[in-house]
Amino acid sequence: MDEKMDQISSLPETILHDILSRLPKKDAIKTSVLSKTWREIFYTFPILSICDRESIRRSSKRKKDQQIKTFLDYGKQRLLRFSEQGLAIKEFKLKLSLTCFDLQLIYPDVDQWLKLASECDLQTLKLCLPTLKEDDPCLCYILHPGVIEARSLNKLVLKGRIRFDKDFLNPSVKFSSLCVLSLCYVLFDDEGAIEHVNSHCPLIEHITLKWCYVYNPQGARDLQISLMKSVSMHGLQKLKGVDIQGVQNVYIDAPNIEKIYYGADSYEPSKMNFDSCGNLRALTLMNMKIEFLFTDIWFLHLSSKFPFLESLELVECSMYENINISSSQLKALVLSNCSIMEKLEIDTPNLLSFRYYYAGDNLPSISFLRCSSQLEVNVLFNMIHPRLYQLGKFVEQFKPQKFLASLSLSIRPCIPSDEHFYYYEYRDVKVTSSVKNDVNVVDFVHLKSVLGGWTSSDNANISFRLK
Questions:
Q1: pTM here?
Q2: CA 286 to chain centre
Q3: What is the superkingdom listed in this entry's lineage (predicted)?
Q4: Complete DSSP assignment for 161-222
Q5: Please, what is the Cα angle at 192 between 191 and 195, to 5 degrees?
Q6: Could you read off the pLDDT of 134-145 as tens digits, one per residue?
């Protein structure tokens, strides 16, 4: 590179590192061949990402073994450079996708890499291995606390065939700076290990726990691991949000938590207790049988239980036939593919957004007892056997004079032309389609003729703006 033309290379190292951080990874790697300066900048860049797929490809065993050796040498040299020069590593991401057999051979190298990284004031660690499954109890990478126990570590993300051994139950194991903990498809030797880790993270703010397993050495080979049955979180004063999926029983006692996302295993009855989370602002429940969790009047007392709740989302939940939702602070409500429900009454004077998604033929009755003058209603459903008379009755529900409603529909098959249809007129109804040009519809008789011209191959969205 012509030094007279190269003004960027003379910039301070921190600025050059900032430039690298804004480039796609492939482009950042290319900078290492520009000059010796840029090569050094790249190799001291404090955000280090290593992925075996970039170096190891399908080939003969001999060639593959050589590729693995080259990959291991590369990773070791990259980390040794930081260690020997006393440089800090802000983030280390290691992604491995090798077969179980090959992974087991390189686990000692992974230990060394993580230890070197943790000694370089590591702030964020992301370790991703192939996904662990119940029917595939392949040997996992055993994570020892001494490998990753770093006072500087504030974010830990682990995914895949990673095993927490019983050393994590040692009272001396502490993560004094950890603020974010994310664990997906990992294996615990003891179900109490996660609670012990959490209790030794005084600054923890966000916890993700998705489809984690517990080891049972007494079980048959195909039953030696099973999904975690329960988790309890209490005494975490700084906890702001949790994302828990696949755990059957959950107890949360965190006075300052603001956001809870819980996805249950739909095949098992689940229980969840978070009544003491009075500061809650956003709640999402997924794959729940509501009858196992709440009584039919639970939604009537949202204001007293959660006075600051602003967002409620229920996804793929089995509901009661009649649901009454009442909350003075709720601003956003989402119901997506919630079965059984036949009647929904909503008493939410400050609600600004209501979204309802459903795939089926029988549409529920929905009414607003109180609502904001700025409320927007968006409905999206996929009717396998569309019935225009149902559509007419459904739309008629959104007729209060003091709020605007937008209705979005997704209809797959064509609609029978002889279908009986209830007639309702609106002053302003607009139909838009991703397949056809926009159409202004005066009333639903016109709407019927527009819909009747569709074929089963049309995948269209219809939007109504009602006044």
A1: 0.82
A2: 12
A3: Eukaryota
A4: SEEE-GGGGSTT---TT--EEEEES-EESSTTHHHHHHHT-TT--EEEEES-EEE-TTS-GG
A5: 120
A6: 656 567 898 877
